[in-house]
Write the structure tokens for this entry.
Amino acid sequence: MRFGFFDQLPCPNGFSERQRYRDFIGQIELGDALGFDTAWLGEIHFSRAFSILADPLMVLAAAAQRTTRIRLGTAVTLLPLHNPIRIVEEAAAADILSDGRLEFGVGRGVAYQYPGYGIPLEESRERFEEALDFIVQSWTNEPFSFKGKYFRAQDLSIVPKPLQSPHPPVRVAANSPDTFPFSGRRKLPIFASPLINPPDKLKAGLAIYRDTLAGTPGDTALAFPVHVTASRAQARQDCEAGLMRFTRGRRARAPQGSVRLQELRGFSPGPRPLRTGQVRGLRPRHRGIRRSGLLRRAGAGASARIWVRRVHLLLQPRWNDGPCDGQTIDDGVRSRGDATLPIVLGH
């Protein structure tokens, strides 16, 4: 099992975009030093409070110059919104600049972003599948030709080529009912999250994915928030406001039927020990992991070695102009040794 972390870089009132980008590069640097496997960045547009990560490939190329080991992934690049030639070029450059550490996650995003790009939402599925075929073929054929409904190429040679051969690993965001079987038929790894789909829908989608793999080993990256602290009350105090703010923003931009706010309101009645491994760096009474009621009902588990006092720094790198995410209780949380991070688990 591999462990990574995800961020979409919200920029709340009182924080500059320059500051937030500095914070995030610092977070990736520390993740590299702590031994996390991958840093995942989301592509989101037109909502400063929700995210200022409009071009994750550019940010990953910058982070590659400050790291040496951690893999750098998009979660996800929104293929229907872009010309695939441009994505092929940018992804290849990011792979070269990171010495072959790019993880290429792709998806369609949510409806509110499409009008800003002048693209009809009803074209998103066709554009996504066509762009993905275009990109993979451009990396595996030299030169290549492509004739689709939206994208075309004739004897085209796109440079540069990625360092990884034949191309960076491709992973698909599986958040809609049709994406689970699509990914399974193509034998592609997927992202999934109980923060996007309620547990019953997520469980059904994963079952379809496994069935359509037809015996081929699957690869699922499951994203959910993890908080390590001393008590249930402290977990709620530290996490609830941020989780609810994220969920409200997600709900306002997500298709009907996505996760409901009330599904995040309950916390487990007591500390849950990790199934394997241990939480290091805490007093014995802290050796537990708290999961929201949503994750408990989804049956989500985790196993890790987490240096908790340092993990908190991962989301709280401090510069002269303040903490990275606007928490007013930052110093108090540091002194208690608690930790909060959105974590991605993958096989």
User: Anything to note?
Assistant: The chain has two domains: 1-173, 226-347. The chain has a mean pLDDT of 78. The first strand starts at residue 2 and ends at 7.
